[in-house]
């Protein structure tokens, strides 16, 4: 990851190039326009820096074996219970309430029915 100083130096050199061009000279006709141009460039630089930091931290977490993102609501235990209950003819509402009471990440009704829809298209599951 580049240092903040090198990022700032790169930003200053790009800004100097923009001000030298005739397009930038047309834009920068007064102080307000110059300030606006500077603020926009600062925001872009900040966004790039934050994106680089976030990507670096995600890669560090993955290297440590930490999962990234939201955990899946349909855990393997919940899948096994849902399939077993569906095979004996339980209704979707009862299955969903049972799964919601199990430990693990929260599961909404729509998440359960979306999972069920995907598994009904595969006949070997139910």
Automatic annotation (TrEMBL):
Source domain of life is Bacteria
This protein is called Resolvase/invertase-type recombinase catalytic domain-containing protein
Natural source organism: Paenirhodobacter populi
């Amino acid at each position: 990851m580049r240092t903040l100083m090198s990022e700032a130096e790169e930003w200053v050199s790009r800004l100097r190039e923009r001000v030298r061009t005739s397009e930038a000279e047309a834009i920068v006709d007064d102080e307000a326009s110059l300030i606006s141009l500077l603020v926009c460039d600062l925001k872009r630089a900040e966004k790039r820096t934050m994106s680089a930091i976030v990507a670096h931290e995600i890669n560090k977490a993955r290297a440590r074996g930490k999962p990234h993102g939201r955990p899946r609501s349909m855990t393997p235990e919940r899948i096994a219970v849902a399939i077993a209950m569906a095979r004996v003819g339980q209704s979707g509402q009862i299955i969903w309430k049972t799964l919601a009471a199990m430990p693990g990440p929260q599961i909404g009704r729509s998440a359960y029915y979306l999972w069920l829809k995907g598994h009904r298209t595969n006949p070997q599951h139910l």
